[in-house]
Write the structure tokens for this entry.
Amino acid sequence: MERTTFIKPIYLFLFSIICISSFGILEASDDEYYWKTRAVQAQMIAKSAYDPKPHAATNRFNKAVHKMFSSNSTGRNLKEKYNGPCLATNPIDRCWRCRKNWANDRKRLAKCVKGFAHGTTGGLHGAFYVVTDPSDNDVANPKYGTFRWGAIQAKPLWIVFARDMIIILKQELMISSNKTIDGRGAQVHIAHGAQLTIQFVHNVIIHNLHIHDIKPGGGGMVRDSVDHCGLRTMSDGDGITIFGSSNIWVDHISMSNCADGLIDVIQGSTAITISNSHFTRHNDVMLFGASDSYSDDQIMQVTLAFNHFGRGLVQRMPRCRWGFFHVVNNDYTHWLMYAVGGSKNPTIISQGNRYIAPPNLSAKEVTKREYTEVGIWKNWIWRSQGDLMQNGAFFIQSGGKNSRHFSKSDLIKSKPGTFVTRLTRFSGALNCHVGKKC
Ligand SMILES: *[C@@H]1O[C@H](CO)[C@@H](O)[C@H](O)[C@H]1NC(C)=O
Ligand SMILES: *[C@@H]1O[C@H](CO)[C@@H](O)[C@H](O)[C@H]1NC(C)=O
Ligand SMILES: *[C@@H]1O[C@H](CO)[C@@H](O)[C@H](O)[C@H]1NC(C)=O
């Protein structure tokens, strides 16, 4: 869901008193100016992150998968719990997993992203910050040692967790630019509280977390950076909201049962990869573009790869508008209504996924065009190539082959859907132990 970005100055005036810190009290007019400035800066950065040749990006991705299989075959194809030696079954995981010293070389991860978020480095050039305190008692002036303290710092940071913990956020947690949130080596649950929000920022990696049972935050004074704290309206209760942001990579996250969406990518966000994640128990899974009237979402480019869309999911995996979406090598084992859909002329390149339709005879179609006449959507470019269709699943394609956005010869074939159980085998948060292969 969309919500208002800017709040009425009168409320700011009433609340700004509570946010006193060593930086002093912000005036109401400063707050509005602050967010407008942030929006303008973020838009400029997003425009430069936009890839003018999205098909070339899809081809690079598919080539990387082919290359991995030509160098080695992983052999196994089953999905039950695996207790054998460490196996990395796709090119993102191959880049860092199964090295005994992963914990001494955490920043290697920053070289591993593929797809549209290519080049995302997160906190690579920063220090490590260790979260030792799971509490979140002061959202206006967070305490050193908490997750929130690290997330709002101005400098790049590589954030890790000292031990297993459940973090119940009192209000949405604002993540600032140039951060890696690295949950490896601990079981970290962001749960039963408010969401993660990535608003008007760039260059963030979120890795190896459990995010579930997120609820709307009531709103109030929340610090979003060391020198700014301001009034937030209620948060939606998404798992992760990516709002007006670019170069964001979400990898190996287990997500379920949030109040709104699991991941929303909205307001002109671009250069996004969501990979190796496991989604369960949820209705509206992912929203890429929140409004048919927000044409700035044309720059949106998202790669969705090696994810497992599992038990208890209903629809929107994702629901797309405006932008360019590469949906590649994902495993769709459960949906109740549809898997991939949208409105407002999004380009959807579906390659090498496995789609297993539910028993419901009215829900076998993978795709759904929302509120649009066929005379209009017949021109939208929605392509299925190498997808494995099971249990009667079918994908309705559209888009003329002479369209300026698409020509078949431009596309390199993906690894086919028959490889998906292998490629997605270790989706979701991993149980990594320091000193052992992950
Ligand atoms: C391929 O597999 C062999 C044996 O399992 C391993 O030693 C080698 O490092 C692998 N090669 C690549 C490129 O991963
Ligand atoms: C993030 O890092 C880049 C590269 O070092 C830098 O240019 C940029 O200003 C940083 N962003 C913020 C908001 O500090
Ligand atoms: C079957 O799918 C249709 C279309 O999504 C839906 O409207 C209907 O509620 C489903 N029926 C059941 C029993 O789930």
Summary: The chain has two domains: 1-49+120-260, 50-89+269-275+291-417. The CA atoms of residues 245 and 409 lie 32 Å apart. The first strand starts at residue 127 and ends at 131. The longest helix spans residues 28-49.
